[in-house]
């Protein structure tokens, strides 16, 4: 059901090299509390942080918003952080900003815990009016509205381990 590769693994790797340099420039001399939004961000977070030279600590949150290919709008906090973020320089990692509902919820939650700073890193942001208010500080790629899988993004938990980002098309029977 994969239509075509949208972003190759090589293009992602090259972009991550640049993002790591941007992150190191912003946090020079400091430390980062990296927070991944499970599960989709794991591939992006680990591959990017392996390139970052600034000291990091890592924690995870889990929320759930999708059923099949549709964002349900009902954001459930499934798993909370294990560490306090007060006075920390926090970077929140997402695989994709779609409607932006998940990030808005996460930003509200984390802001209330008084981090020193709070920035967003996302592999993908869909170009949609619904998420225009969300500023991603460290962004991999802007994409269109199509449903994509791979590099952490799933369809009913499948395809996360594709090394690329691919467009999913239910009408096409091809395999990756
Ligand atoms: C997906 C994705 C983002 C969110 C983006 O998570 O990983 O967290 O949806 O959508 P939004 O901008 O419309 O809120 P999902 O809830 O599917 O969980 P997953 O990371 O485990 O796939």
Describe the protein in words.
The chain is built from three helices and nine strands; from the N terminus they run E-H-E-H-E-E-E-H-E-E-E-E. The protein is α/β, with parallel strands linked by helices. The strands form two sheets. Strands 4-3-2-5-6-7 form a six-stranded mixed beta sheet, sandwiched between helices. Helix 2 links the parallel strand 2 and strand 3. The model has no long low-confidence stretch (mean pLDDT 92). Bound molecules: 1-O-pyrophosphono-5-O-phosphono-alpha-D-ribofuranose. 1-O-pyrophosphono-5-O-phosphono-alpha-D-ribofuranose (PRP) binds next to strand 2, strand 3, strand 5 and helix 3.
Q: Cα-atom Rg, whole angstroms?
A: 16 Å
Q: How far is it from the N-terminal to the C-terminal residue, by CA?
A: 8 Å
Helix/strand/pairing class, anyone? alpha/beta
Largest sheet: 6 strands, mixed
Low-pLDDT ranges: none
Characterize the overall form.
globular
Bound chemical compounds: 1-O-pyrophosphono-5-O-phosphono-alpha-D-ribofuranose
Oligomer designation: single chain
Total strands: the figure is 9
How many helical elements?
3
- Helix-strand pattern: EHEHEEEHEEEE
Spatial strand order of the main sheet = 4-3-2-5-6-7
Average pLDDT over all residues:
92
What amount of the residues lies in strands?
A: 35-45%
Helix content: 10-25%
